[in-house]
Amino acid sequence: MKDHLHIPPTGTAKAHSTGINTPGVQAAGPHVPGADTPPGFDAAMAAEVAQLADIFHLLGDPSRLRLLLACLSRAWPATELATYCGLSPQAASHHLRLLKAARLVRAERDGRSIRYTAADDHVRHMLRDMIEHMAEEREAP
């Protein structure tokens, strides 16, 4: 799926649904609202598709996926979660910030530390269903 980009005034490309600046990515031209909406989709549906694509793009990074999978089972202190997933605290913090912005993880203060867990049961079910789906594919003839 093609990224939905427009050029903001700063000259860097910006993804529509996440608002994440992407330095170095230049769009082919200014974004024209509705121009990339397929005939069978209204603008609201096209926006939902773009937002869903952004979420799957986030989950396409193995480090972020490891962090999220670890957060399915319990709430983790940030430093312990980084170590468990084999990441530096700085890298884990960056990935967790993106996952939190996408509402895939939730941060809870616990005294002086912050604990991260999956945002809700929707996230848990989505990932567990995908894991079950992959297992079915391996078992199929």
What does this structure look like?
- It is a single chain.
- The chain is α+β, with helices and mostly antiparallel strands.
- It contains 5 helices and 6 strands.
- The strands form 2 sheets. The protein has a 3-stranded antiparallel sheet with strand order 1-2-3, with no helix packed on it.
- Residues 1-32 have low confidence and may be disordered.
Per-chain topology:
Layout: E1 5-6, E2 13-15, E3 21-22, H1 43-59, H2 62-70, E4 76-77, H3 78-84, H4 89-101, E5 105-110, E6 113-118, H5 121-139
Antiparallel strand pairs: 1-2, 2-3, 4-6, 5-6
Helix pairs in contact: 2-4, 3-4
How much helical structure, as a percent, in the residues? Answer: 40-55%
Distance between the termini: 30 Å
Main β-sheet description = 3 strands, antiparallel
What's the pLDDT, averaged over the residues? Answer: 80
